[in-house]
Write a structure and sequence with these properties.
single chain, about 60 residues, alpha+beta
């Protein structure tokens, strides 16, 4: 039986946490940054855990993580 392929787009976006969840980066930090406050940009830089409703979908895209 051949190995399953990971979804390469998902592999770049999600990382596994130690407790078994998945973390993700936030959007809106690529351009048009001058009008955004320092506080907002700083908070957008944090990694967040994905919502529990999305875990099943991400686990399917990343079978070996």
């Amino acid at each position: 039986m051949p190995k399953m392929k990971s979804n390469s787009g998902a592999a770049k976006r999600f990382k596994r946490t130690g407790s078994g969840g998945y973390k993700r980066g936030q959007s809106h930090l690529r351009h048009i940054l001058t009008k955004k406050s320092s506080k907002r940009k700083r908070q957008l830089g944090e990694m967040l855990e994905i919502h529990e409703n999305d875990v099943r979908m991400v686990r399917r895209m990343l079978p070996y993580t």
